[in-house]
Amino acid sequence: MEEVVIIGTGPAGLTAAIYMARANCNPVVIAGQLPGGLLTQTTDIENFPGFPEAINGFELMMRCQQQAEKFGAKILYEVVDKVELKEGGPHKLTFTSGEIMECKALIIATGSSPRWLGLESEDRLKNHGVSACATCDGAFFRDVPVAVIGGGDSAMEEALFLTKFASSVTLIHRREEFRASKIMLDRARSNEKIKFIVNSVIKEVVGGQEVDALRLENVKTGEVSDFPCKGVFLALGHDPNTTLFKGQLETDQKGFIKTTGRTTYTSVEGVFVAGDCADNVYRQAVTAAGTGCGAAIDAERWLASKE
Ligand code: NAP
Q1: How far is the CA of 232 from the centre of ligand 1 (A)?
Q2: 3-state DSSP call for residue 142?
Q3: Is the CB of 151 under 6 A from ligand 1?
Q4: What is the mean pLDDT of each run of 10 residues along the chain (307 residues)?
């Protein structure tokens, strides 16, 4: 029986691992389908404190992993297929390899996945002009036109953020009504750098090595046209990676795991949560790392209280 298992190796999971290892709790960390998490898929990270020259996302996560391993965390390259959570533990994990593991405390740090349009051209041009994170990649698009896709608060926020860099920002939405809050929509509307195209869907991201344009179809008239731009920022929302825990942990309507007050406690005793799978608001590497620290402290204290 393991003392503590952490599912996920993004900033939340690895920070939890560093803290648990330094507390002599011998954490086992399950790497999952995308070892290092979503950050490994971005380029330079300029807003993680301590790296004024920026740091490559993959390198940041490798450094976090080394730090966790240095203190004794064990990284297991397995993917969790099934969990059986029990009030107060032990919790049972079954991996896709068929192996089974039990633990007293469990920290869930499975992250979330951005929604994509699902176009072949979008996939091909990811990191070459197509991004799902303006905070991460916006600064690479100085003095060029960019487009933001979506009609929620994230789309407004990303569009406003991008006005700092881009020559113009065009927000493209599939209908006329916006899901965004009035205050965010008004703020975007009153920014003269932001233009709106509504009732339009993306048929294709046009470009060879980099983005040149978006092929749009007006859903009312059927008219197809190319909109020239160099950057495309998808703000279609995120889905938390919490399907594994469905029916066993309390979540909100969108599947984000609920915590008790300001703690990282979930609805099952001995199960803690950190990072984007419980956060539909901030979704930053540094906030994920912060809750990873919180989850480790909560789990360590909880384990100590059971001794
Ligand atoms: P969201 O509210 O779910 O909005 C997603 C947007 O993407 C919607 O406008 C949706 O269009 C569009 N969309 C989804 N799939 C699409 C597709 N396949 N093709 C075209 N458009 C598509 O997600 P979010 O904006 O990330 O916000 C998530 C939560 O975080 C919200 O509760 C929001 O209030 C909160 N948030 C708050 C702030 C803030 O207050 N500063 C900032 C960011 C986020 P439809 O509307 O047509 O469905």
Answers
A1: 16
A2: coil
A3: yes
A4: 98 98 98 91 82 94 98 98 98 98 98 95 96 90 98 94 97 97 96 98 97 98 98 95 97 96 97 96 94 98 95
d(CA 252, ligand 1 centre) in Å:
16
> 7 in helix, strand or coil?
strand
Q: Is 199 in the pocket of ligand 1 (CB under 6 A)?
A: no
Q: Which residues contact 302 (CB under 8 A, 6 or more apart)?
A: 105, 269, 270, 272
- Ligand 1 atom with the shortest distance to the CA of 118: 18
Sequence-separated (6 or more) residues with CB below 8 Å from residue 208:
none
What whole-number distance in Å separates Cα of residue 195 and Cα of residue 189?
Answer: 8
Kindly list the structural domains of the chain, giving each domain's residue range(s) and its CATH number in brackets, ordered by start: 2-114+238-306 (3.50.50.60), 120-234 (3.50.50.60)
Residue owning the nearest CA to atom 39 of ligand 1: 153
The reply to whether ligand 1 has any atom less than 6 angstroms from the CB of 240 is no
